[in-house]
Amino acid sequence: MAFKKFVKTVYSNNWARGICIGVIAGLILDLVIGLDIWNILKIASKETYIFFAQNIELQLWILIVLCLLPFGITVLILFLIAFFENPNEPEWLKYTTDTIFGVPWYWSYRGHVVSENSLYALCPHCFNRLEFKEKDIFGPAAGTSLAYCDNCGFKNTLEFMPNKIQYRVIKEIDRLTRIKYLQE
Ligand SMILES: [Zn+2]
Known about the structure:
Layout: H1 2-12, H2 14-33, H3 37-53, H4 60-84, E1 97-100, E2 103-106, E3 109-110, E4 113-114, E5 120-121, E6 131-134, E7 145-148, E8 155-158, H5 165-182
Antiparallel strand pairs: 1-2, 2-5, 3-4, 6-7, 7-8
């Protein structure tokens, strides 16, 4: 049973299976065909060693170049990374948060446009996501929204309806981007 388990373990491992098949194939070649495979391997490894251990003559400048090559390649790779990483990416794409209408907003861009789905507001006190609701449906504050934190109780009024919030905030981001980044 132990042997069966051993065979199963060996068979499920690619490396072990490869080595076993190699050894068995070697034995078959050795015994059945009469090839002295072990001697061939011994000679081959010795030849390989002799090949790599041979002395060569080298001009000093080639040696210096070979020693400096890794540094050169490293510098080249770093340069290429710097070059291809976001080529010509506008500075204003780094503008992804601001306090707008009294509330800190966060967003990201899809292409060069503010992604509507990415837009959210956090409570300035406890960083909980803010909720929005219409403030006063029939009273004097009708048409305004309340931004509120259901964690700490922070409240802030926005002077437009909840369904206009996303549109107004993105419009404001657009305006602020022009002021901060695109004015000459
Ligand atoms: Zn809060």
